[in-house]
Every structure is written in structure tokens, then in C-alpha cells.
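Standup, Tuesday
Yesterday: got the pipeline producing C-alpha cells again.
Today: sanity-check two examples.
Blockers: none.

Example 1:
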Amino acid sequence: MARRGAALEFAVLGLLHDTPMHGYELRKELNALLGWSRVLSYGTLYPCLKALGKKGYIVADEPADTAANRGRRGKIVYRLTAEGKEHFADLLAAPGPSSWEDETFGIHFAFFARTDSRTRVRILEGRRSRLEERLERVRTAAQKRRERLDAYTLELQRHGLESVEREVRWLTGLIDAERSGRPPGDEPEGPTNTTIPPHHGG
């Protein structure tokens, strides 16, 4: 939970870095960015905003008391302070192991355009190493338990392994692109093989 809270704070700082937002806008953007299995609730968002405010990273601008606003509740707009912008820049420039964990990698990746190539490669390599370690553990455990598992459990396990293997290949392509100075998604020049190899079940 602490890791997820830190990830949420990082995402809030990143989104408010671009433009001030009120709570509804911020929640909508966070749900699109975080991609968690559950929808981010206001009961989770507002304590995060309060905590960031106490740290001096954001401020809440109250709506102006104008004739148009009287009689209805105006929307509070949240924006980054100078300290908040500096803190966000520090988080971008000095990623640690937490930046390539499941809960945080996607958020750091979403803000890759604001980081330097060396930092991006460090995070990508950290993520790939973490997944490769996970693959090795799962494969070893699968070999030991294979005879005791039914066909559906084995299929679920195979699906999980293929998903991780696919992400490892994707990360390797991104790392190669960073090191060669290519933007992500650009294929290197030269002959390409577009034939899809047949799948061999096992």
C-alpha cells in the first residue's frame, strides 16, 4: 500500500506539472494513466492531495466569490508549487528500484519524455532484470509441480509466462532504441522478417 501511495503521489505531481486541475479532471486523468484494476476513488485521491499540500508540493486555489458562483459550490483547482516542481524533477532524475516494480513502472514510463536517455535505460534495464528473475522462478516452480497440475492450471501458467516473455522482448526493443538514438517504435534499417513463426504448444 505504501508503494501504491507513492506511485499515486508521483502521478499527481506529474499531471499537475502540465496544468492545474480540479478534482474531477485529475481523477479522470489518473484513472487513464494508472490503469489499475479498480477505479481510483475520491476517498483515495483527496487524502493524497491533502498529504501533498502538507508537504508544500501543491496548493488548492479556492474558487472566486463572484455573482456567478454564489449559491453553488465552485471547484477547487490544484496546482504545483515551485517546491512541487522541484520535487517532481528530483523523482524523475533519481529513480530507484521502486521505479521498475509492477505498481510504479507504468507511471514512470508515462513520463519518460521528460527524462534523459540514461535514466530511461536504467529503468528499462531494471524492469527487464526483475521480469527475467520472475520468469526463472516461475519456470523452476512449474517444472517441479507440472505433474500435479491439471490442464487448465497449466494453460493459465503458460499464458502468464508468455505475457512476461512478451514484455521482456518489448523492453529489449526499447533499450536497443534508446542506445541507438532511435525513437520508440521505429524499427532499425535493414531486412525484416514479417513471417510469424508457428506456435508450438507444450
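Example 2:
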Amino acid sequence: MNTASFPHGIMFHHFWDHRHPAGQGAIGADDLVRLLRYLGPARILKAEDWLERAVAGRLEPHHLCLTFDDALLCQYDVALPVLDDFGLTAFWFIYSSVFEGQLRKMEVYRYLRTVAYPTVDDFYAHFEEVLGGSRYGDMAAQATAGFDPRRYLAEFPFYTDADRRFRFLRDRVLGHDPFEEIMDILVERAGLQAERLRHLLWMEDAHLKGLDDRGHVLGLHSYTHFTTLGEMSYAEQQREYLTNRRHLIAVTGHVPRAMAHPCNSYNQDTVAILDELGVEIGFRSNMVGAQGSRFELPRQDHALVMAEMEDR
């Protein structure tokens, strides 16, 4: 079983079934059942219980909670019935822009590489081919000349070298707009229409209300889910979390008490903003800094738990 000696969350993103494709890192319902049994359901607290114990300082070293990021419909369709069978509730961290008509292309791009390429490495190769022929090609070549994947995102051991290089290009070389420019070329060439994917990829407000009514805890995950949120100004970060908070209050009728940092990107401004907004706990996206502040609670990616389970 998972042997970390401090309380932490287990972090989930993507799931697959007959409707949702089995992309990189996605698991099915049977996988989730095996994982929960491996962890030990008795260790897994319901989300509200975890929240109250965390605030009161009463979490015990063996305690776990379940967390789901990004309001993905596959989570509702595949994972929620399993949680119901186990009598468990979870934290669901929601970024709100997609609920208010602002398509967030990150999931569209994931869908692209899942359905349009034999493997994720085929996608990476095509991405770099198109990037190399673009106006950003020379800049990207210079920026990656000495790139060592072992030194980038080392705290996430489940990333391959190709994953790390892609994320380096996305976040540190290109930035948001140039990255989307390149990716939109690939989307168009694949014949996909991003707007038509909205209702396949994300939940809607009714799903969120249903989760809240059933005792799950909905938390902040910023408005846009930019991958480098912690590099924004104070005012920009404040706007991200205020608009995210406004949306969740409108859906649930109460103030969000929990959050998770998108892509683990935050700084002291983020912490100050969350404190001002009445947020009581926040989660990182890895196990680094396990003894950090109440806004830095650790989480273990499910992929690492799955790997540990398979090694046993």
C-alpha cells in the first residue's frame, strides 16, 4: 500500500470508457477500483471530513483524500459511479472559464494527440516539425540547444523525457499565444473543431451542482488555468481567483473553502489572495514540501500509485 508517512491527497485527471478515449495517463473504472482497494478505503476520508480535520489540525499520518482537477466530464462519467459504490466523496477543483463560454484549449489539444496520433511521441514529433517550420523555429532551436530533461520538472517522475521537452517548449520558450498558434495548426490539419468538443470534454453547471448536493467539495482552480499562473501580477492572480470564486458561489450558494494550484504554479501573492478570499486549505500537485503551509498540502499523482501497485 501507499506508504507515505503524512496525510496527503491522491490526484486524478483523465479517465476512459466507451465515450472518452484512453489517452496518456488515463485510467478506466476497473483501474480505479483496484487502486482504491490497494490504498485501503478505510484510510480515505470523505472530502468534508478531510477539510474539517485539516483546518482543525486533526489529520493523522495515514489519512488520504481523493482529488479531481479540471472539471472533466470523463471524471463524472467514469470515476463518480465508482466513488458512489465505495461510499466516498472527493474534492473537485474547478477552473471556470469553460463554464462561461471561454473555451480552454488545453483539453482540446490533449484530445487531439489522443485521437489523431498513434502514440504521444508521434504527436511530439509532428509538433516539433511544425514548430521548426514556423516563425518561432529558430528561437525554439536556440532555447533547447542545451536542454537537459533530467533537470526540468524533476519533481514529477512520471514524465518522460519527451514530456519534459514538450512542456519546456510550451511554458518556457513559446508561452501561451505562440503555443496556441502552433497547436491550432495541428488541430486544423486533423479536421477537429474545438467548439464541438466542449460538451464531450467538460462538465456543465448542473454536474457541479449535483456533486455539491451529494456532499462532494468543490474548490478553486483559477479561472483560466494558465500553466504559469504564479508568474502573473498580483492583480491578475486576484482576478483569476475572484472570477473563479464568483462562479462557484453562483453554482453552489456557498464560498469555496479549498483550492488546488494549477500546474503547481503559485507564489506568496497567491497565498495572500487565497487568504483574503477565505480559502482555508490548498493543495500542491506533488509530494514536495509535505510539511508546508495550509495552502501547500501534498498530493500524489495517481500514476505513481498505479506504478507502485503494479510493482508489488
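Quick observation on example 2: The longest strand covers residues 64-69. Residues 73 and 203 are 5 Å apart (CA to CA).
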